[in-house]
Amino acid sequence: HSLLVLRSLGRYHAMTKILIGRGLIDDSDKGHYFAGLNTPVKSGLFNGAIHMLSKALINKLGSWPAGWEDIGKRIQKQKDVLCNTLEELYINYDKKFEALNHGDLWSSNMMFKKMEYTNIPIAVKFVDYQLPHLSSFMWDVTYFMYSSVKPSIRRPNVDVLLKAYHESLSDNLKFFK
């Protein structure tokens, strides 16, 4: 599933990169991704999320085992730095890596087609395009990898997964030109 998603994402980003180059997608199409907005809502959302994460680590809530308390305290102390860094990463990026991002690419925003009489995925469609935005393609890649790929799959295969994305992106950039 993950390889199929990353190959499809590479094709999607390549197509949007070509459309940007042809002037068919421009700044007027740029949505506002919440990470890049300096608003009270975004600040509250991020600060709240970081606060809850640090509390969970410190107090061993949910599935967090003992041993993470120190990390939770460090995260709590760096809350403002983390929020500002995320905003800075969204705003200041190398434009040569700009693509139209889906913006919310996680497993619930995908529909898989399976080979008949099997459980083997052969195609994927991305749905729910409510947060598209022009930015570095890595927003979609990172969001998908950390929201939808189990750590037991992601960690030992990260190079294979990123290579699949890169090959698809490169091959499709050549194809669409």
Automatic annotation (TrEMBL):
Classification via InterPro entries: CHK_kinase-like, EcKL, Kinase-like_dom_sf
PANTHER family the record matches: CHK KINASE-LIKE DOMAIN-CONTAINING PROTEIN-RELATED (PTHR11012:SF56), PROTEIN KINASE-LIKE DOMAIN-CONTAINING (PTHR11012)
Cited Pfam families: EcKL (PF02958)
Domain CHK kinase-like, residue spans: 1-175
Coiled coil ranges: none
Record protein name field: CHK kinase-like domain-containing protein
